[in-house]
Design goal:
841 residues, mainly alpha, 5 domains, two-stranded antiparallel ribbon, 3% strand
Length: 841
């Protein structure tokens, strides 16, 4: 039946060709000969067309192809043909119903291909290679009643049915061609690629050190495309070797400091990923045992493995292995928090696969680091054997534990922990260690448990992990708040920090007035002696006597016992005033606040205030001496008027100079005691109440002390005005000694004048100027008073000059309070006018 149908189709084609050739306008009224070469060539061409696969790669659109043909005719200069074709196509497309062509687009496409094929033949090209390949027919095909040999045709896929199984024939020929080009089957290459992906050389795929990768050996004939594909697939093995080598080297060095627990966790995370990778390879090796079927064969099961299938299987493992290789290169020289931070930077990725992979990796890598944070924040334990944590401890003295015992290591701070959070973590652990070591307190454990409960975490290991930064910050905040509050409560209540600060203010800053005045009175005569002749034990007795004689005796005995006399280093020419000072002995844990540098500042302030008190005490002593009215005494009635005038002038000059000095000292002392010490103490008290942790308390105390030092003209920026102030103090002390000499002389003159009237006839020693008679007394009195007047004038002149220099420097100071001091000292503008007159003259 099939042979009859085929013969019938052949006869129809034969008849069609005869009819078309007979209607050729170039040879009208000519009946073609069926055996002529022209007829046979045309018939063969018709068979080629019918056997060809003419399906195009464009979508079927008859209007578009008609437009294309019309445009081509127009561009070739055949405008009339283009118009004729357009008219014919309009009639062709509008015809519908019985006898019309349904698939108009296919017909137009066929005509276009035939036209292009004929044009190629006219240009001398082999059209069979261009448009209709592999369809040349033997002459036997054209014979009537002869059977066609379809098996000898190369052929391509047909659009119509394939009764002769040409498709299978084509695939078998393709397989034969591939076998001729390759000496190795694809199954063998697949197994070798799987070996290479495990870092093992296969039979034909081996590691090539020259190209640093796996490739097919050169002596095996393999198509170029296959070699390229094997090289692409074997990249996974190269990456695997790098990761595996890093894990092996790191674990061989462990427990070395260059690896550490974070590095070990990183290796463990990589090893877990490699375990999943091994499982995948096991599945693929099982599939590689099945043969690769031909495309034409019906495959009952699809669990075979080809190179192209490996590309699909390796897509996800390739991404992960590349990431692991990049991390291995990045982390070779890193450890601890630096390693975790470097890995964290690669987690900021938009690909969900990469992001999820990095998150699972970081959870494993950061677990030791988060455990260190938990242990430090809740227990105060620094579990950092290999120096990986961003908190570093070092052995120091107990008084330096808070300030220098623990520091941040910026190089080990991972990027997912902010610097502010790191500072809170550092301070929380320091607070626990300070309570445990310095305060001998264990109440912090309850505070840590409360903090863990409030933050919703646990105090056990593994309670925190990567990706829980908010939970970590909440835990640190709660722990810091509770532990810092407990620390301040211990300092304030158990160790009485505020009371100790008040005791220092009373005794070192001379705030206890009755104590200071009594101490000044009883040690003054002793301190006037050379420093080498003064015993510190004797001064300690004076100190104890001053405490018992003043209200200081009612203070806490523990604080009074810390107050001691200190003799500073001195030379041979120093007096007791130059070396005497008081010191306050802080004990643990208060020595964290009152360090040696802090106590040295207190010592500077004490020496300054002690000198100021000494100057005030000197002026008070002068006033006590001046109080008896020596001028109206009857003893000077018989003196000459010139001597009386000299005496009155000297006394008046002394009184005026004392008033000037007393005005300056009184106002300056008021400024120091009230505007500096009291205001600074008031601010410090407020900041103590507002302090939330020990760092705030230390900062408040440092600010308090620096405020006193700066406003008392003891800072580095006030050295010039400080020298001018000390010159004024020295002049006042010189004035005290001259005033004592003056009044001692006047007092002796009174006595001698009275005695000279009763003992005028007595014989006196020639060296005694008082006993030489009234004339001698008058002469010596005049000389003495003249000398004292000159000394007073000299001191007054120096004092005025020094005070003017001091006042001129006050407005230049940064502190506003010093400018108000200038207003208090010169509220009548007396010194300003005097300064202006001095400039004019």
């Amino acid at each position: 039946m099939e042979e009859d149908d085929q013969q019938k189709a052949t006869d129809l084609v034969h008849e069609l060709v005869l009819r078309l050739l007979s209607q050729n306008p170039k040879t009208p009224n000519t009946h073609p000969d069926p055996n002529s070469p022209t007829f046979l060539k045309t018939l063969r061409y018709a068979h080629r067309i019918l056997r060809s696969r003419l399906t195009p790669s464009v979508s079927p659109d008859s209007a578009a192809i008609a437009e294309s043909l019309t445009r081509r005719l127009a561009t070739q200069g055949k405008s009339s043909d283009a118009l004729s074709f357009a008219d014919l196509y309009t009639k062709f497309s509008s015809k519908t119903g019985p006898g019309s062509v349904n698939n108009k687009w296919s017909l137009l496409h066929l005509l276009k291909i035939v036209s292009e094929d004929r044009q190629s033949a006219a240009n001398g090209l082999d059209s069979s290679l261009l448009l209709l390949p592999n369809l040349n027919l033997d002459d036997a095909v054209l014979g009537r009643g002869k059977k066609k040999d379809w098996s000898n045709n190369g052929g391509v896929l047909l659009v119509s049915k394939d009764p002769e199984n040409l498709r299978d024939v084509a695939f078998r020929e393709f397989v034969s061609l591939v076998k001729e080009e390759s000496e190795v089957t694809e199954e063998v290459l697949v197994r070798d690629v799987l070996y290479a992906c495990q870092g093992i050389d296969g039979k034909f795929v081996k590691f090539n050190s020259e190209i640093d990768g796996y490739a097919v050996v050169d002596y095996v004939k393999v198509p170029r495309a296959t070699k390229t594909m094997v090289r692409m697939l074997s990249e996974l093995g190269w990456l695997f070797r790098k990761v595996k080598c890093f894990i092996s080297e790191s674990m061989d060095r462990f427990p070395g400091e260059d690896v550490g627990t974070v590095g070990q966790a990183f290796c463990a995370a990589l090893q877990d990923e490699l375990s999943d990778y091994y499982k995948l390879l096991a599945v693929l090796e099982a599939q590689a045992m099945n043969p690769i079927p031909l495309v034409s064969e019906s495959v009952s099961e699809s669990n075979y493995l080809s190179l192209r299938r490996l590309l699909v299987w390796f897509a996800e493992p390739m991404v992960k292995m590349r990431l692991m290789a990049v991390l291995v290169d990045k982390c070779k020289v890193l450890r601890g928090g630096a390693m975790a931070g470097a890995i964290h930077l690669h987690a900021q990725h938009g690909d969900p696969l990469v992001h999820g992979f990095m998150m699972s990796l970081l959870r494993c890598v950061c677990s030791p680091l988060f455990e260190m944070v938990r242990s430090w924040v809740l227990e105060g334990e620094l579990e950092d054997t290999f120096g990986e944590f961003f908190v570093v401890g070092q052995p120091v003295k107990v008084d330096l534990l808070w300030r220098e015992g623990y520091k941040l290591h910026p190089g080990m701070l991972p990027s997912f922990i902010s610097p502010s959070l790191a500072q809170r973590i550092l301070r929380t652990g320091k607070s626990i260690n300070f309570l445990r070591v310095c305060c001998d307190d264990h109440g912090w454990a309850d505070a840590a448990s409360e903090a863990a409960a409030a933050s919703g975490t646990t105090t056990r290991r593994g309670g925190l992990g990567y990706g829980e930064t908010d939970a970590l910050e909440h835990l640190v905040t709660e722990a810091a708040k509770r532990i810092d509050k407990h620390l301040l409560d211990v300092l304030y209540k158990r160790y009485k920090f505020k009371e100790h600060c008040l005791a220092i203010k009373r005794y070192l800053l001379l705030g206890q007035g009755d104590f200071v005045q009594y101490l000044m009175d009883i040690v003054g005569p002793k301190l006037s002696e050379p420093a080498n002749n003064i015993s510190s034990f004797e001064l300690a007795g004076f100190l104890e006597a001053a405490i018992r004689a003043s209200n200081a005796q009612y203070d806490d005995r523990d604080m009074l016992d810390r107050l001691r006399v200190k003799m500073m280093p001195h030379g041979s020419g120093d007096r007791g005033w130059d070396v005497f000072s008081l010191e306050y002995e802080p004990r643990v844990p208060l020595d964290t606040v009152f360090t040696e540098s802090v106590l040295s500042k207190y010592l500077r302030v004490f020496n300054f205030l002690w000198k100021l008190k000494r100057v005030e005490h000197a002026l008070i002593g002068i006033w006590k001496t001046m109080k008896p009215n020596c001028i109206t005494s009857n003893s000077f009635v018989k003196l000459q008027s010139s001597v009386k005038m000299q005496l009155l002038s000297a006394l008046r000059r002394c009184q005026v100079l004392w008033n000037e000095m007393n005005h300056f000292v009184t106002n300056f002392q008021y400024y120091i005691m009230f505007e500096v010490l009291e205001v600074s103490w008031c601010n410090f008290s407020k900041e103590m109440e507002a302090a939330k942790d020990l760092d705030d308390l230390l900062a408040a105390h440092e600010k308090y002390l620096n405020s006193i030092v700066g406003k008392s003209l003891l800072g580095e920026q006030s050295q010039t005005i400080s020298k001018s102030l000390f010159v004024l103090f020295e002049l006042i002390l010189r004035f005290r000694s001259h005033a004592d000499r003056l009044y001692e002389g006047i007092y002796e003159l009174q006595i001698r004048t009275k005695e000279s009237g009763r003992e005028r006839n007595k014989t006196q020693e020639s060296s005694s100027w008082i006993s030489e008679g009234r004339k001698a007394i008058t002469q010596r009195a005049g000389e003495f008073l003249q000398s004292m007047s000159q000394d007073m004038d000299s001191i007054a002149k120096e004092y005025t000059t020094s005070l003017d220099a001091f006042l001129s420097l006050l407005p230049l100071q940064q502190s506003v309070d010093l400018k108000f001091l200038f207003f208090r000292l010169d509220f009548t503008e007396f010194y300003s006018r005097l300064h202006s007159k001095g400039k004019e003259s």
